[in-house]
Amino acid sequence: MSSTLVLALFLFLHASAVLGQQTQTDLREARQCRIQRISASRPTNIIQSEGGLTQLWNEMEDQFQCAGVGAFKNVLQPNSLSLPNFHPSPRLVYIERGEGLLGISYPGCPETYDSSQRSSREEGSRQGKRGSEGDLHQKVHRIRQGDIVALPAGAAHWCFNDGNEELVAISVTDLNNQANQLDQKLRSFYLAGEPSRRGQESEPARQTFQNIIRAFDENLMAEAFDVPVETVRNMQKETNRGLIVKVEGGMRMIRPDEGEEGGEMYNDQGPHNGLEETICNMRIHQNLDTRGQADVYSRQAGRLHLVNMQKLPILRYMDMSAEKGHLFPNALYSPHWSMNSHSIIYVTRGDAQVQVVGHNGQSIMDQRVSQGEMFVVPQYFASAAKAGTNGFEWVSIKTSNLPMKSPLVGYTSVFRAMPIDVITNSYQISPQDARDLKLNRGQQSVLASPGRTST
Fold it and tell me: Cα Rg for the chain, rounded, in angstroms?
């Protein structure tokens, strides 16, 4: 009997502790989203590197704390390599400009691509020895301007700019994702390199990106890799090259746009582990600049491209998605709210007047935003935008793999679904005015052409 009471008391205390922790978490998250003002912002910290630079937005801003995200921009010069690293939270990357090669290493997936075949074909018998040794590796992806790229939590990845212009990539990391069991702090674990000591870096920026190889004992690492200690010392030595380095003589790996099978030499020999049809072969990128594939199109207003878990299945596991929008001059992104996600919006071209209404019914943003700026629209906060005379383009990263929005205007609006009597009595207006509210934009979507009161 006593043992039963002790067990019951233990379960009660355990449940109370769990509920208490959950309550504290809920209260902390609630406080984080009590935003008084949202302002479009630009990066505040810069990390200079040999082959480019990294610009970080201030993750301590209220809007980023509310959404639980961290954001930064990488600029890779031609023939430069962003060094291998991994991060504890899923990340979506938008390629704003340029093109390059991206590799992701998934544990347990086979090395099905053979760069030595390419070397042998190009250099003949001189490379016979190298060809016999082989250079098997996992898939290398070609990424281009307009691509949304999915980087899962914990998977090591690298990027190489093999083009003739800068490669500019905007990254948003979902720090609040369930994959991250650490604190909500933007961080990446690098396998090589370190933040350089030049430029405008702050100490928090240096703490965000650090090399994990250097701290291991050199003898232990030499034994683990079965290589000479001198090799490990070269891996661990301090340099001032930064996180993005120049590559001497280019890189000779196989490119995805060469050879057969969509441009890749595919080596399908060897055993299979059952993962090839799932994680190992999943697409990781989708282009959002193809005009003919817009999900929402209006001849008078603009277009929307959406990528969610239905278009890019890997997003199902990351619980993220993206939207690319283009508004024609003076067109409207009608008032709406997001039902299941925060929206992190980066302006890629043009400008717009953006308004956001907070949970307290007060305007928390009424600002003209322009290219290069970023802002957050929290879940359930209503927002609208009116493009400037040069139009407005943006990319929005969302913290849901299948986001839903509820518009106030258009053929899918909440007013369209209501009886006219409900609208009439809600606002104490005439039935005709209620009918106009309900139907005047009845043939348009959330993208609306300039209205008759437009100036």
Answer: 26
**Spatial separation of the C-alpha atoms in residues 300 and 450, rounded to whole Å:** 8
pLDDT, position 209: 87
Instruction: Give the pLDDT confidence score for residue 200 in this predicted structure.
Output: 55
* H or E element, residue 184: none
Alpha-carbon 355 to chain mean position = 24
DSSP 58-94: -TTSHHHHHHTEEEEEEEE-TTEEEEEEE-SS-EEEE
Question: Which residues are within 8 A (CB) of 352 and not within 5 positions of it... i.e. 6 or more apart?
Answer: 327, 333, 368, 369, 385, 386, 387, 388, 392, 394
- Reduced to 3 states (helix: H, G, I; strand: E, B; else coil), residue 380 is coil
Alpha helices (runs of H) in 237-379, residue ranges in sequence order:
315-318
Q: Are 244 and 54 in contact (CB under 8 A)?
A: yes
Q: Token pair for residue 23?
A: 């309550």
Sequence length of the chain is 455
> What is d(CA 197, CA 281) in angstroms, rounded to the nearest whole number?
39
Mean confidence (pLDDT) of the chain: 84
CA neighbours within 13 Å on the CB side: how many for 358?
15
Q: Coil, strand, or helix at residue 361? A: coil
Task: Round to whole Å and give the CA distance between 366 and 350.
Answer: 17
State pLDDT tens for residues 325-368. 999 999 999 999 999 999 999 999 999 999 999 988 899 999 99
State residue 227 phi and psi, 5-degree precision. Answer: -135, 165
Element (H, E) at 253: none
Which run of H or E residues covers position 422? helix 420-427
Give which of 53, 71, 67, 29 is closest to 173, Cα–Cα.
Answer: 71
By the 8 A CB rule, do 82 and 192 touch? no
Inform me whether the pLDDT recorded for 132 exceeds 80. no
Q: Any idea what the Cα angle at residue 277 is, between residues 273 and 280, rounded to 5°?
A: 75
The amino acid occupying position 299 is R
> In 10 A of CB 138, how many CB atoms?
14
Residue 126 has φ and ψ, to the nearest 5°, of: -60, -25
Give me the half-sphere count of Cα atoms (radius 13 Å) on the Cβ side of residue 170.
Answer: 26
Q: What is the Cα–Cα distance from 437 to 451, expressed in whole angstroms?
A: 13
